Amino acid sequence: MANEREPEIVLYDLACTKNICFSPVVWIIRLMLNYKQVPYKTTFLEFPDIEPTLKGLGLLSHDCTSKHKYTVPTIHHVRTNTYIMDSLRIAQFIEATYPDPPVPLTSELGSEIVAKARCALSPAFRTSLMPREINILSPRSQEYFRRTREASLGHPLEDLLVPEKEEQAWEAVADAMRALGELMLTNKAEGPFVLGASPGYTDFFITGSLQTAREIDEAVFQRCIKYPGFKEVYEACLPYMEKRD
Ligand SMILES: N[C@@H](CCC(=O)N[C@@H](CS)C(=O)NCC(=O)O)C(=O)O
């Protein structure tokens, strides 16, 4: 079994009170590692500990255009003593280091889906998930999350939770969600994944986002999977979601 072997990677993940992964970008990496059966162990970090811990490991901060200077996922590849921060760079490293089975990182269809998902899902997720994420954080992380997110929103998190506003946010993205789901079904004759028979980066991107929704609020997850396409991809990825801590 993969996870009985000596860990080859330490995956730095975001802590929550459920002690499981709930970050969409960390899930992308976790799905890749689980699919490729790479043995790894997780170190969960509370929000306020991300920067001091990663700085202490010698990592350089993201450039000043990034929202946060230090982020998870970050990995330590033990054998080569390599530290990498940022999900895309980590995905490229994993693909280069563990090419079998392959996880296609780019495709025309995949790029279109990821770009459209960012547009369609982001506003609705921000409205529904950001104010509820605090419910699964420790008191220290809650304080950090509220302070940083309210500074960027310019208002209290709870202002997003007005029911009519939430409904409007989902209605506004309904057509885009439907179109996105249809795109995901493009290759359904060949298999349940975006590119057909086997998973790629896009499937893990979509599944990671859906799993985040599910961990924060099951109702938000249910809102998404009622659109055709989402449930198919998510269920096809379930075998690679077993290791979540
Ligand atoms: N572009 C980065 C984004 C990563 C990111 O924003 N991660 C969040 C957790 S989901 C984080 O570490 N935030 C640090 C903070 O809020 O200080 C990636 O894809 O790795």
From TrEMBL:
Q: What residues does the GST N-terminal domain cover? A: 22-96
Residue ranges of the Glutathione S-transferase UstS-like C-terminal domain? Answer: 122-218
SUPFAM superfamilies, sorted: GST C-terminal domain-like, Thioredoxin-like
Q: Name one Pfam family in it.
A: GST_N_2
The record's InterPro entries line, in alphabetical order, gives:
Glutathione-S-Trfase_C_sf, Glutathione_S-Trfase_N, GST_UstS-like_C, Thioredoxin-like_sf
Specify the domain of life of the species encoding this protein: Eukaryota
Q: What is this protein called?
A: GST N-terminal domain-containing protein
Give the taxonomic lineage as stored in the record. Answer: Eukaryota, Fungi, Dikarya, Basidiomycota, Agaricomycotina
